[in-house]
Amino acid sequence: MTAAPIETAKPLLQSSRARVGVLLVNLGTPDTADAPGVRVYLKEFLSDARVIEDQGLIWKAVLNGIILRTRPRAKARDYLKIWNTEKNESPLKTITRSQSDKLAAALSDRDHVVVDWAMRYGNPSIKSRIEALIAKGCDRILAVPLYPQYSAPTSATVCDEVFRVLSRLRSQPTLRVTPPYYEDEAYIEALATSIETHLAGLPFKPELIVASFHGMPKTYVDKGDPYQGQCVATTQALRRRLGMDETKLLLTFQSRFGFDEWLQPYTDKTMERLAKEGVRSIAVVTPGFSADCLETLEEIAQENAEIFKHNGGEQFSAIPCLNDSEPGMDVIRTLVLRELQGWI
Ligand SMILES: C=CC1=C(C)c2cc3[nH]c(cc4nc(cc5[nH]c(cc1n2)c(C)c5CCC(=O)O)C(CCC(=O)O)=C4C)c(C)c3C=C
Ligand SMILES: [Fe+2]
Ligand SMILES: [Fe+2]
Fold it and tell me: Which GO molecular function annotations are given, in alphabetical order (predicted)?
């Protein structure tokens, strides 16, 4: 049974003055780079049944008894290595805010469009930003999960949370959600341009490029998650655009968590294998991340660079995510303008 609607927001403005809200959403990140901050974040994240599907008693015991006692301290050290000390926040927040500001500037000639941003876990929460959009008079909201490839642990959980917030409202705004854009022309072109620009500035020519995507348990895909297929489609489109085959642009999956089998080939094992096979120089691109974060700045640019070099590799370069770059903003702008058709 659904809970009775609670009116938490002011009534919407009437249609002649009504506005359209655009809400960019990324995964989330701790508020502070210390163990308590990381613990709060991990608890919320790992208690989501979209992320860890089996939330049974055994998982709860492992989460509360082991993971939340040990991982926050170790991960806080990793966050400290990449922390934006000027703003005292995680890079994922800094970049998502800037994407939102730049999109707002690009749409500034449409004064009835309001752009904002939120994090699925942590702050600013989806609830607080939807309430803010409604308070500004938005009677239509476009939610934009910033994931090129759909997956239940990322895209679907954004929708779950948006729906949960709306389920508590008597007077709901009309909702749209942007679709995954894993082989959208603007996205593939932006990735290719950013790779070409980055390679042109390197003092060496990498023998090959690794496209590393965030992994997920293999069982999720076996049960129907389309994520792996969309990562493959992105990589194939990128190969076509760059004129590379699968020996020059490899596809791998990173960030394995826990003991189950995740999507393969694993990025870290591939780094080790390539170096041992005699590859001396590589570049790594992370097309599944729309903004640089712990998984790209620490796990790829530091941890995996170290694995490659430790096994005999010599030159390693991590290609930045699209972030708030001109090609990156072109992707977000194209996506948003397409989905706003009929509303603006
Ligand atoms: C445990 C299961 C996890 C699944 C499934 C998963 C999928 C998934 N995640 C991203 C994007 C990001 N994940 C990030 C961090 C992160 N991811 C997991 C676990 C799963 N992710 C954990 C536990 C963490 C936290 C760090 C750690 O403790 O290892 C981040 C970075 C956030 C930041 O603060 O910078 C991103 C981004 C995708 C795209 C994805 C899809 C399959
Ligand atoms: Fe993750
Ligand atoms: Fe990681």
Answer: ferrochelatase activity; metal ion binding
**Cα(257) to centroid of ligand 3, in Å?**
8
CATH fit for domain 15-181+327-339, picks 3.40.50.10090, 3.40.50.1400, 3.40.50.620, 3.40.50.2300: 3.40.50.1400
Count of residues making up the chain = 344
Residue 295 CA to ligand 3 centre (angstroms): 5
Structurally, at CATH architecture level, domain 185-318 sits in 3-Layer(aba) Sandwich (3.40)
**Choice from 69, 99, 214, 262 to test ligand 1 binding pocket (greatest atom count within 8 A of CB):** 214
For the chain, give the mean pLDDT.
95
Residue of 265, 287, 281 whose CA lies nearest to 211: 287
Q: Cα–Cα distance between 312 and 295 in angstroms, integer? A: 23
Can you give the pLDDT at residue 1? Answer: 44
- Supply the pTM of this predicted model: 0.94
